[in-house]
Prior knowledge:
Blueprint: E1 2-7, H1 12-36, H2 45-48, H3 56-92, E2 95-100
Antiparallel strand pairs: 1-2
Helix pairs in contact: 1-3
Amino acid sequence: MAKTMHLKHISVLSIFKLFGGMFAIIGFFMGLAAAIFGVKFAPSSIFLGFAPLAFLSTRLIGGLILGVLYGLATGCVYAIVAFIYNIFASLLGGIKITLEE
């Protein structure tokens, strides 16, 4: 027996925690990889102005900080999208979902 439901509200905080945490972890490891492998466009160029001559520790700190900030910024964007969805779902009825047992 199929049951039809409407998704009318998404918790903005849960969306921020899920996507912010997920992308912060991904950004952490990408910043770590950029620092270890000495990528020429490593985020440490913001801190020193010249990435090729930067020390590994400065590259590591820059990569990790910017990687985590990337995750938090992405979480904010997804939270804003969820908030906008909630507004439109309240006006237009949300997404129709059919569940089957």
